[in-house]
């Protein structure tokens, strides 16, 4: 398969874990960043876990530069960053959202991917191997919904951010290929949280339950396979 290395956020569960496993099964090296622990390192020798809370946006550059120092950058066949970690809550009308809840959400779902992207590009600008960035997006970035102001706003931001960086990269000698990827509705912990809310708190909880009960949700593995194709 060659010497490909990927940095993936949110690898302790869901889509991130599935994608890490698929890459590792192909013989790629994976550095996973997640707030929680991971047993992937016990199963795959090419997996390195970095336990880090992405709400600490000031520490992100140190994490990325630390990871990249461990990678023989001049001999990699391809290097990629997959910004997959996300937060769904707060799921309630904006006048019920606390400042801390909004701040934490935007740090994890929008500021962190922006800083990760900035740091990744900056610290790899000297290499000639192909570089790829995938930002996991959502249809919520294009369609407004009640009680989802934080989530819809962060996903709309990710989409616009991706377009801006793509325009910056066009004129570079080794441009980074950057895309936003909408996985559709996926049966993850985020969906379970949305389904579990009362209709009073989250008006769309019934719609999320219906999607689950009528089999409309993709599995995290299905989405990870689609991401693998993009890589």
UniProtKB/TrEMBL annotation:
<dbReference type="InterPro" id="IPR051721">
    <property type="entry name" value="Biopterin_syn/organic_redct"/>
</dbReference>
<dbReference type="GO" id="GO:0005737">
    <property type="term" value="C:cytoplasm"/>
</dbReference>
<dbReference type="InterPro" id="IPR020904">
    <property type="entry name" value="Sc_DH/Rdtase_CS"/>
</dbReference>
<dbReference type="InterPro" id="IPR036291">
    <property type="entry name" value="NAD(P)-bd_dom_sf"/>
</dbReference>
<comment type="similarity">
    <text>Belongs to the short-chain dehydrogenases/reductases (SDR) family.</text>
</comment>
<dbReference type="InterPro" id="IPR002347">
    <property type="entry name" value="SDR_fam"/>
</dbReference>
<keyword id="KW-0521">NADP</keyword>
<dbReference type="Pfam" id="PF00106">
    <property type="entry name" value="adh_short"/>
</dbReference>
<dbReference type="GO" id="GO:0004757">
    <property type="term" value="F:sepiapterin reductase (NADP+) activity"/>
</dbReference>
<keyword id="KW-0963">Cytoplasm</keyword>
<dbReference type="GO" id="GO:0006729">
    <property type="term" value="P:tetrahydrobiopterin biosynthetic process"/>
</dbReference>
<keyword id="KW-0560">Oxidoreductase</keyword>
<protein>
    <submittedName>
        <fullName>Benzil reductase ((S)-benzoin forming)</fullName>
    </submittedName>
</protein>
């Amino acid at each position: 398969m060659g010497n490909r290395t990927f940095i993936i956020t949110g690898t302790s569960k869901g889509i991130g874990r599935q994608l890490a496993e698929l890459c590792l099964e192909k013989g790629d090296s994976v550095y996973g960043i997640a707030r929680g622990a991971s047993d992937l390192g016990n199963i795959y020798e090419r997996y390195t876990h970095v336990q880090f809370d992405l709400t600490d946006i000031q520490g992100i550059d140190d994490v990325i530069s630390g990871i990249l120092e461990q990678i023989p950058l001049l001999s990699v066949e391809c290097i990629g960053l997959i910004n997959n970690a996300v937060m769904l809550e707060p799921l309630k009308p904006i006048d019920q959202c606390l400042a801390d809840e909004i701040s934490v959400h935007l740090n994890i779902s929008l500021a962190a991917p922006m800083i990760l992207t900035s740091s990744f590009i900056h610290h790899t600008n000297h290499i000639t191997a192909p570089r790829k960035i995938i930002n996991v997006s959502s249809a919520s970035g294009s369609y407004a919904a009640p009680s989802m102001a934080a989530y819809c706003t962060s996903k709309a931001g990710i989409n616009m951010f991706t377009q801006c960086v793509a325009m910056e990269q066009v004129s570079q000698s080794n441009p980074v290929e950057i895309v936003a990827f909408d996985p559709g509705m996926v049966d993850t912990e985020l969906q379970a949280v949305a389904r579990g809310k009362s209709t009073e708190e989250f008006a769309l909880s019934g719609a999320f339950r219906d999607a689950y009960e009528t089999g409309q949700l993709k599995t995290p593995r299905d989405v990870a396979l689609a991401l693998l194709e993009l890589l």
